[in-house]
Design goal:
204 residues, alpha+beta, 4-stranded mixed sheet
């Protein structure tokens, strides 16, 4: 999820950079273990009038495999992993895209257990105890620098997390090029990028 983001853990000459992963985040914050619910079961329970219903009957495994990445992309296009943030109004009322997105939002609302385990951990971080100042201070005591590459492709949920971490880190390095943006389908908007965490505080 954070392929181009690294954290430098520890201080001094022997400190090393590590790729930022949800697993590393969970270990630093002692987030509880999460398990993902069965997507096939959730799809089957949604009735016979959904875009995937017919194909699910004849090819359940391929259909479930096809829905999974699309559902994940829809989730990553939100800032707080909240299905209410999916804006159907931006799509034509009778379009196929709107019908499919509406079905995914309905699925997410009815079966929140289908949120992938790593995204559940990220939601825990963004929404609750991990935001406590004492907890954040304890973690940042281990972080010397946050490095973010390809910032132009940061999705809303990624930016929400990176803001929480990078805006408090002792040092933050952000690199991006709007001409190389390729992740607009996940909500990244290089034309009007959000204000970077580093710009909201003085350099150190």
């Amino acid at each position: 999820m954070f392929d181009n983001c690294y954290v430098r853990l520890g201080l001094g000459a022997l400190a090393g950079c590590q790729p930022l992963t949800v697993e590393l985040l969970a270990s630093l914050y002692a987030l509880r273990h999460r398990e993902e619910g069965c997507l096939y079961t959730a799809l089957a329970m949604m009735g016979e009038d959904k875009p995937w219903s017919a194909s699910l009957l004849v090819a359940p495994e391929p259909t479930t495999a096809a829905v999974r990445p699309i559902l994940r992309s829809a989730m990553l296009a939100t800032r707080r992993l909240d299905p209410a943030e999916l804006n159907l109004g931006a799509l034509p009322g009778t379009s196929r895209a709107r019908r499919h997105l509406a079905a995914l939002r309905e699925l997410w609302l009815a079966h929140p257990e289908v949120v992938p385990a790593d995204l559940q951990n990220l939601r825990d971080f963004l929404g609750c105890e991990a935001g406590d100042p004492a907890v954040l201070s304890a973690v940042l005591a281990e972080v010397d620098c946050v490095i973010i590459d390809e910032f132009q492709d940061t999705s809303p949920i990624q930016f929400a997390f990176l803001w929480s971490l990078a805006s408090q880190a002792p040092r933050t390095l952000i690199v991006g090029d709007t001409k190389q943006a390729v992740m607009g389908f996940q909500g990244a908007d290089p034309a009007s990028p959000p204000r970077s965490p580093a710009s909201s505080r003085p350099r150190r």
